[in-house]
Amino acid sequence: MQAAVCTGAEVLEIAEKNIPSITDEDALVRVSHCGISKWDVESYLGENPQLQLPRILGHEICGTVKQLTPSQDNGISLGTKVLVNPILSCGRCIQCQAGRSNHCEDLKFIGLDLDGGFAEFVKAPIKNLQPLPNEANPEKYILAFPLSAAHHLVSRIDFRDVDHIVINGSGPVGVLAGLILKEKKNIRLDMIDTNSFRLNIARNLGLFCIDGRQSRLHEIIKERCFPGKDGPDVVIETSGNPAGLDWAIRWVRVQGQMIVGGRIPGKGSFDFTNLLEKEISLTGTLAYTQEDLDKSLSDISNLRIDYQTLITHRLPLAGVREGLRILRSVEETMKIVICMDPFK
Ligand SMILES: [Zn+2]
Fold it and tell me: I need a surface site. Which of 44, 63, 150, 163 has the fewest CB within 10 A?
């Protein structure tokens, strides 16, 4: 099969690889679509110490089941369209038992610890396959991955005494979190970014957007606050900008909440004294749970939003390297999807 194989930092080639062989617990999936995320960029740049090379990256995978052991069939059969949940958890440890499979003691990711979806075929445990409606175009379900991360961010908010939320970063996860929060009653939501292309997409989806480049940014955020509040109740940081945490600490109200979803390169830094003196609650997030994924699949199946408006680029398998470059350096980008079928 053809695959885009990462063999070193910033080294990625299209190569001929053996089709993965499967055990009774696995299925072989013919990949139809695979999204490119910031995690893939990080891995490609050699910034992820967990990554062992060579590796086929790509963890936002949809496709069709091509091979599985019939006796293991649990609602999945040959020809079923599926989404592949890339998070491999044991199901037995205390984190899994508590519903926190994203913190499994033996956590592994397809596309990081195992070969991923920038290939014609991928191997995945049958329990990680989510069946999709047979008539559906699997492409629209690619947005289930950032949408699950967005649901997870939102699930970490304590909504008591919250009526104003600011999201910093209008990438796919930030915009999708904004769309989830927009549906909640009595919440004022502001989206901030310095990327006008992304802000325009967010604005067209009905979100209130603020250009982060303007000199009066901090004053504007104060002006948006409700009477009696010295800042937004919650600031969600999804930009991955190293300065994002310091901005969030500056904007959020006394005893407010900061939810961090953006992966910041290196260790990051922020004003700890300000965090302490404002008694801010700081909450981290990691990937998503099965519950978040279930919500996302339901959202997409119910067509509540035309999620495909977030897809700005479609590239063939040979375009993975180009896709990684675009996501890194081109401003006019939202979601990039590698599409296999239309190019075969
Ligand atoms: Zn576990």
Answer: 163
